[in-house]
Amino acid sequence: MKHSSSTCEQIQQSETAGDFKKDFICANDQLHEAFVNSPLVVIVYVFAVLLIAFLVFRSSNYDHKDDE
Fold it and tell me: Residue 7: how many CB atoms within 10 A of its CB?
């Protein structure tokens, strides 16, 4: 299986792209690789989903008694 070139490698070969665009796309490509290769991202994502679910549950679960 042939490994496809990254977006950074493809944009570096382009003669019409400016330096800022090349730098930005390469930085984005590096950030994406760091997120994909790190298990910490999955842990943070799961924690955030559970936290939001807990907050929604707590906010919808209040007592409907009238103060009389």
Answer: 13
- The 10 Å CB-count burial string (b at 16+, else e) for 13-52 is eeeeeeeeeeeebbeebeeeeeeeeeeeeeeeeeeeeeee
pLDDT (tens digit per residue) in 31-51: 888 888 888 888 988 999 999
- 6: CB partners within 8 A, 6+ apart: 29
SS3 of the chain: helix, strand, coil, percent, to 5:
70, 0, 30
**Alpha carbon separation from 6 to 28, 29, 30, 59, 60 (Å, rounded):** 11, 8, 10, 45, 46
